Amino acid sequence: MAILNDLFSIEGKVALVTGGGSGIGWMIAEGYARAGAKVYIASRKKAELDARIAELGDAGDVTPIVADLSKDEGCQGLGDEIEALENGKLDILVNNAGANWGEPYEEFPEAAWDRVLNVNVKGVFQLTRRLTSALAAAGNHEDPSRVINIGSIDGITVPVLETYAYSASKAAVHHLTRVLARKLAPKHITVNAIAPGPFQSRMMKATLDSLGDKVAELSPLKRIGSPEDIAGTTIYLASRAGAYTNATVIPVDGGISGVR
User: Where are the domains of the chain?
Assistant: First the structure.
């Protein structure tokens, strides 16, 4: 049996984290980098990516790539770039890029569905499919490559806010995770999802600024998530410790989804 340090090690692995310029994506990317992985972060906003790189300094190996994953050409282009940079291999793909839209039921627009589902569901499928050959090239029977999709507890429980397209998209991500897990397992690729609860992110900023204490009270642990909470779960899934975990959706929410 591997000793503890080896069991949870991701040192030397290569990861791509989409939506890695802020929020949960950056929490994951920074955790991976500080744990010794080589990390690529993708986002539409170059300034945001550059700020994260400057923030990390010499504490890890992170490379920014500008990509718009709401469009198929953005997914294809990102896949091309990763394959060229890493000689056709990728150990870990974290599909974190996401969009949200809040508006009253009576006014919820068609454009919201197009925007949110294009990024949150179609983008996950398109990028995973584009990088399947690179993931298959890096994985093996004992140490498969990993796809980690970032869902949400809003895809498990009914959300309080009027985010109809978002909650539907995250439920779709959870089920797509299971479908892809069965499809890709023969290629030595596992597919799992994490369903975060409230974390300090750009998507949650307005809610936490106005209702922070009330949001924390929803959790049995009476707090929102920390960077270590999400980084720890994604490191586990990417390490030898998580090699036999497949087709699962793991809530990281302090117990909110379990008691609602």
Answer: 4-255
Q: Which residues are catalytic?
A: 166
pLDDT along the chain (260 residues), means of 10: 81 98 96 98 95 94 97 97 98 98 97 98 98 98 98 95 97 98 98 94 59 73 93 98 98 91
Q: Give the burial string for 178-215 (b: 16+ CB within 10 Å, else e).
A: bebbeebeeebbbbbbbbbbbbebebbeebbeebeeeb
CB 38 within 8 A of CB 61: yes
Rounded distance, CA 84 to CA 131, Å?
12
Inter-CA distances, 43 with 170, 202, 203, 234, 243, Å:
19, 13, 14, 19, 28
CATH node for 4-255:
3.40.50.720
Q: pLDDT at position 5, please?
A: 77
108 burial type by CB count under 10 A (0-12 exposed, 13-18 middle, 19+ buried): middle
